[in-house]
Design goal:
9-stranded mixed sheet; two-stranded antiparallel ribbon; 25% strand
Length: 304
């Protein structure tokens, strides 16, 4: 990984100071005392703790008892019996991994599967890792520790910890994953019960449903079916760059597998500098942002 320039380092230090003043920078060890888990629907959302550290207790006693059907739900927390929750938005300074990068226009969606039953469920994702230089090297290590502390505060008795949020080695977590909610229901943006009117977009608008790029053209009709009641939430993102990320954190128990799952949803990405160079070879490769007319690239075989 290439070393950052002096202006980039200065910019990063200034960003660190601003985030510390904000009070939700995960490199600050006292952040955990300002946050706690609140029940929402079938799971929990990390929220602000307005009454100090005395209320920062484990949520094992509040994990709802779920039926088997709950394991197959989308777990968006939209329960009519849950009061609105204001999610906390912690932040960190990270490097967006070049190799484990699926933060593309459709997250690589090929069609319905066990994770995404329809295109509406798609949440493009990326993995973030240590920026690789001081002072944010140590900051990222503390951020990982704080995320471990927070997730350990919300566990279901008898359940194992899912592996989808943290990536670990023999010494502990080294990376964590962020995702982006690609579609938003127009119901959630309606004000004062006014009639919902789908936004009017130009036929040449690159963010329109008509022109939104997909990996598989066959999914275009499924995408267009969302147009009347949803909007697309574009998110500019770049792999291999240094960035300031702000996100919410959720938990839900998967009953069928007796497993706790955690997810971080991006709220804001601020680029702090150009790409720092490529990381080592990973399991995933960047997915191009263009239409693929159902053609697959022939596999290449080494000559004997």
């Amino acid at each position: 990984m290439a070393a950052p320039t002096v202006p980039v380092v200065t910019h990063v230090i200034n960003a660190c100071n601003c985030l510390l003043a904000l009070g939700l920078y995960l490199a600050d060890p006292v952040v955990a005392a300002n946050l706690h888990w609140v029940c929402e629907g079938c799971g929990h959302v990390l929220s602000y703790n307005l009454h100090g550290a005395s209320r920062m207790t484990e949520a094992t006693a509040t994990v709802p008892s779920l039926g088997e059907d709950a394991a197959n739900t989308n777990h968006e927390g939209d329960s009519p019996f849950s009061p609105p929750v204001e999610p906390a938005v912690p932040c960190a300074i990270v490097c967006i991994d070049h190799d484990d990068f699926c933060l593309t226009s459709d997250g690589g969606y090929h069609g319905p599967n066990t994770i995404w039953k329809e295109i509406l469920d798609v949440k493009p994702s990326c993995t973030v890792l240590n920026p690789g230089f001081d002072p944010v090297n140590s900051d990222f290590a503390v951020a990982l520790q704080m995320l471990q502390v927070l997730t350990d505060k919300c566990i279901t008795p008898g359940y194992s910890n899912g592996q989808s949020f943290f990536s670990s080695n023999n010494t502990g977590p080294t990376h964590f994953k962020l995702c982006h909610k690609l579609f938003e229901s127009l119901d959630s943006v309606a004000v004062d019960n006014e009639e919902i009117v789908p936004p009017v977009t130009s036929s040449m608008d690159p963010f329109s449903f008509k022109l939104w790029p997909l990996m598989r053209e066959k999914n275009h009709s499924e995408l267009l079916a969302l147009k009347s009641m949803h909007r697309i939430l574009p998110l500019p993102a770049y792999d291999g760059v240094l960035a300031e990320v702000h996100f919410t954190l959720s938990h839900w128990p998967i009953v069928a597998h007796k497993r706790d799952v955690y997810g971080a949803q991006i709220q804001l990405i601020c680029l702090l500098g150009p790409p720092l160079g490529l990381s080592g070879t990973g399991k995933k490769r960047k997915i191009p942002l263009h239409l693929d007319m159902e053609k697959t690239t022939p596999k290449k075989h080494a000559s004997l």
